[in-house]
Amino acid sequence: MNRVHLYVMAAVLTIAGGGFFLYKAYIVGFPLSYKTETTAWKVEARVTFTAAGKPVKVSLLIPDHQVKGFAILNETFISSGFGIVTTMEKDNRQATWSIRRAAGKQTLYYQSTIELAARSVTTGDSTPPKPKDTTLEGTSLQAAKSLMKEVKKRSADIPSMVAELITQLNRDDPDDNVKLLIGPKPNRKKRMIAASRVLRFSGVPARVVSGIRLRGTTPDFYKNIDLIHWLEVYDGKAWASFSPATGKSPVPEHWFRWCVGAGHPANIEGGDNLRVTFSARPLVEKALSSAVNRAEVSHPSLLKFSLFSLPVSTQAVYRVLLLVPVGAFLLVLLRNVVGIKTFGTFMPVLIALSFRETGLIRGIVIFVVLVALGLGVRFWLEQLKLLVVPRLAAVLIVVVGLMTMLSVMTKALGGHTGLSVALFPMVILTMTIERMSIVVEERGLWEALTSGMGSIICASLAYMVMNIKEVEHLVFVFPELLLVLLAATLMVGRYTGYRLMDLYRFKALAGS
Amino acid sequence: MSWIVSDLKRKGILAINKRNADYTLKYNPRRLYPLVDDKLRTKQLALDNGIGVPPLYGVVEVEGQVRRVLENVRDKTDFVIKPAHGSGGEGILVIGGRTNGKFRKASGTIITSEEIRHHVYNTLSGLYSLGGQPDKAIIEYRVQFDPTFEHISYLGVPDIRIIVFLGVPVMSMVRLPTRMSDGKANLHQGAVGAGINIPTGTTISAVWENDIVEEHPDTGYPVVGVTIPNWKDLLEMAAKCHDMTGLGYQGVDIVLDRDMGPLVLELNARPGLNIQIANKAGLLKRLDAVEKHRDSLKSLSDRISFALDNF
C-alpha cells in the first residue's frame, strides 16, 4: 500500500516534471545546452524623405510575425516625434508613422532581430479565394492562354507547372507570347509579375513577394541590400515559394520574405524623395536568449511565471540556489547507497558551493587549513573549560579571523585576486570543527579523519557535479526537473538494499 | 562484489537502510521515542512496571544546580553521571572512588570536582545529546559487575544487548570492554562482542575489531562458552520492555549487578547492527519468523517460548 503510494507519487512527479521539460525543450524551443548558438540577423529598413512642412504620413510594409522558417525576436521603431501604429493591410503588416508637421530631410528606422531556421510559430496559411484575374485582355489574354496551354502540356502538377512557366519566361529567346506578357525591358520582377498574372488567370492562387537575402557570416553590416522578388503559389495546403531564376521550390533558406507584393514597400503623403534602404548584420546569439525572446512573443504567460522574469541579479542567485537540490540528491546517493560518512548531513553541499568560488584544489586546501587551525584552537580552548555556547562563539570568531588573514596573506604574497572565500560557510565550518573535536576525543582520531575525509570526498564530488555548466543550465532553464529529482529522491528514500559500505562492514559474515 | 551481496542476502543480514525503512520507521512510532531517548523517563517507566534499573541518586536540570551536584553523592564512593539524552555511550562519566578530595575515574585517572562540574555543564548545554538540545544530567548507582564476567572484562561493566522484535527476543550479545575501548562497551570503540545463543544463554562466537576471536584480548580468558546466569529472567525482562514502551523494534541493554541482579540500563529505538557480526548470523530470517507468527504471540510466555524454540 505504502509502496504503491510511493510509486504513484514518483510517477506523477516524473511525468509532470518530465512532461513540462519536454514541452519547453521541444515545443517552446529552449535549448538543452548552454553552448547552443543560433544565427540571428539584425535587419533594418531605413526610410528617408523630404518633408514639405505639412502633415506627413509615411507607411512601410514590415515583415509579418508569421514568416515560415524565421522568427522575429524583437523589433523597434526609431523615429523622433513621429507617432507610430502598426496595422494589417491585406497580406501585409504595415507600420505607419505620422506627424502633424515636419520639414526638411527626415529619417525613420525599422529594426528587428530575426532568427533563421527557427521553429516557426506559424499556424497554417488560410486558404485564399480562388483567383479571377481580369487584368488580362485582348492580345495579352490570348498570349496567356496559349502559354499556359504549352506549359500544361509539359507538366503534371502545380509545382512542375510553375517551374515550367518560369523556365518559359526566362528563356533567352522568348517567343512572342512571352514577350508580350512581360513587356519591354524584361527583368526578374517583371517576369514574376507576369507569371503570377498568368497563374491567377488560370485559377491558381499566386503572388509575387519581396524579400532580402540574409547571407554572409562576418559580423559586418551589409548595407543597401537589394530587394529581390520571387513567386509564391498556393498548392492547396500552403504557400510554396519558387525561385525566379530556376523555378526551384522552395527558395533558399536565407531568403527572408519582407512583404507580399512587388510594389514599393513604402508610401508617403506630405513629402517626397522617399527612399527605403535595407541593411542587415548577422548576430551570433546564445540560443537561450533568443529562445527567451521568442517565448516572450509566443508564450508570454509561460515566461511571465518563469525565472527569466526575475531581475538579473536575482536570477544569478537562483542559478546557484537551484544547484543545491542537485548536490543534495548526490549526497543522498553517497550516504544511503554508497554509505560514506560525513560531518553534518548537508555540510558537504555547502562546502561544495564555496568551492565554486575558490576552485577545487584551493578550496580543499583552505578547508583543511581552516579546520586544522580551528581544531588547534578548539583543543586549546578545551583546557579553559568554557561553556558550550561561548566556546562555539569563540571558535566562530577564530574561524572568521583566520579566513580574513588567509585572504590578506594570499593577496600580500602575490596571489592574484586574494581569496574569494566570502561564501565559505563559517558557521558550518565552526560546527564541523566542534563535531570533529568531540569525535576525536570520544571515538579517536581515526574515526574523525574518516568522517572528515568522507566530507571532503562528498564535497568534491558535489562540486564536480554542480560545476558542470550543463547541469547549471538545465536546472535553471528547466526548474521543473526538480520534480524529477524529487521523485528520484523519494525512490532512494525507500531503498532498503545494502549500502556499498555494508559489504565491507559485514564482510566477516560473507563467504564463511 | 555481487557475490557478497547475494551471500549477505542469503544469510539474511539486515543492513541500515532496511532496518530504518522496514523496522524502525514502520514499528517504532515517533511519539514513543521520548520514552527511550530520555533515560530519566525510561527509568521511571521501568520502575512503574517492576523492571529493575540502577537506583537514581539525583538529577541536575538547570545550571544553578550544578554547584551542588556532588551533594547527591556525599555518602557514595562510586557513581555514574550521564546525560539523559545521550547516545552511543557519549558523555558517560564513571567515578570509581575518591582519593584526597578528588575523584578517580573507572579508568584510573584522577578528576577534580571542578572538572566534574564542567562535565555536567557541558551535559546540560547539550554537548552529548542528540541534536545538541539542552539536556539533563543523571547521577545514578554504579553497577558492580557480576563475577560471571570477572575474567573477560577490562575496567568497565559488560552489558547484554537483546534485540526485541514485537515482544520476542530475537538476538542477543554481550559486550565486553577492553583496554582498547577504554572500559566502554561499544563495539566500534574496541569492545568485544560475543553472540549469545538464545535458547541456552551461552556465548557462541565473538568478534573484536572485525575479527573473529575466542579469547578476551586483554585477559586471555575464553569469551565463548560463557553462560549468562538467570538467562530466562533476562529474556523476560527484555520482552516486558516491549509491553512497557510499545516500540516494536528495540534494543534492550541489561547489566548484571552482583547484588541486584539484572538491571535495565537503557533502551534503544535504533539498535545497531553489529550484533549480527557477533552472532555470525543475520537478523532477517528471525524477524520474518516473528512477523509471520505475530498474531499467535500475545502473552509473555508465548513469546519467550517462541524465542527459545526458534532461535
Structure characterization notes:
The complex is a heterodimer of chains A (512) and B (311). Chain A is an alpha+beta fold and 512 residues long. Chain A contains 17 helices and eleven strands. Chain A has three domains: 39-123 and 283-292, Sandwich (Immunoglobulin-like); 138-262, C8orf32 fold, CATH 3.10.620; 316-479, no CATH class. In chain A, 49% of the residues lie in helices and 23% in strands. In chain A, strands 1, 2, 3, 4, 6, 10 and 11 form a seven-stranded antiparallel beta sheet that branches. Chain A has a four-stranded antiparallel beta sheet with strand order 8-7-5-9. In chain A, a hairpin with a 2-residue loop joins β3 (83-89) and β4. Residues 119-124 of chain A have low confidence and may be disordered. Chain B is α+β, with helices and mostly antiparallel strands and 311 residues long. Chain B has two domains: 12-52 and 145-310, D-amino Acid Aminotransferase, Chain A, domain 1 (2-Layer Sandwich), CATH 3.30.470.20; 56-141, Dna Ligase, domain 1, CATH 3.30.1490. Helices cover 28% and strands 25% of the residues of chain B. Chain B contains nine helices and 13 strands. A seven-stranded antiparallel beta sheet of chain B has the order 11-10-9-8-7-12-13. In chain B, strands 1-6-2-3-4-5 form a six-stranded antiparallel beta sheet, with helices on both faces. The longest helix of chain B is centred in the last third of the chain and has 15 residues, at 231-245. Chain B is globular, with a radius of gyration of 19 Å. Chain A binds chain B through residues 336, 339, 385, 387-389, 438, 442-444, 447, 493-499, 502-503, 506-512, and chain B through 1, 3-5, 7-8, 11, 13, 15-18, 21-22, 90, 114-115, 118, 121-122, 125-127, 188-189, 207, 210-212, 276-277, 280, 282.
